[in-house]
Amino acid sequence: MVSRRLVAFAGLALVGLGCEGADVGAGGGNGGPANACIVTADHPHRSTTAARQGREEIVGKGWFRCARVPKDITLTVRLELELGGGHWNVVGTDGKPFAEPQANRKYEVPTSAPCSPGTFRTAAVISGHNDRGEYQKSAWTYSTEITDPCKRRQG
Asked: Which residues form the domain of 34?
């Protein structure tokens, strides 16, 4: 599964510890700072769970994992439809707050929209307070763009 990752929450706490190479927010750091959370947007696809319930839906999932326990994080996920000319329309959105998420555990939020033709992508962002109580927010990260994710592929 192809997805793009963004290291966020590199934490001002690292500066106090004398660590280098970790940036707060977009642009990311070295991928392994002691107080980092990584947010990922997985590519949108046809929901097999909805199909079993008789619905045809596209689902996009966002998730994060942290190296240390932050105070709180809210994960917001959007499913976007390309309008052309670099413009995107949000067709599904969901978010969930997590209080003191455990270190090295994956936390996921899905969002969905009815199946329709077009090119879709998933977007995800995290915000909240690091382990020192400082508010931080990542930049949006985006999945691979998928055309007609509900169309059944010939195998």
From this structure: 4-147
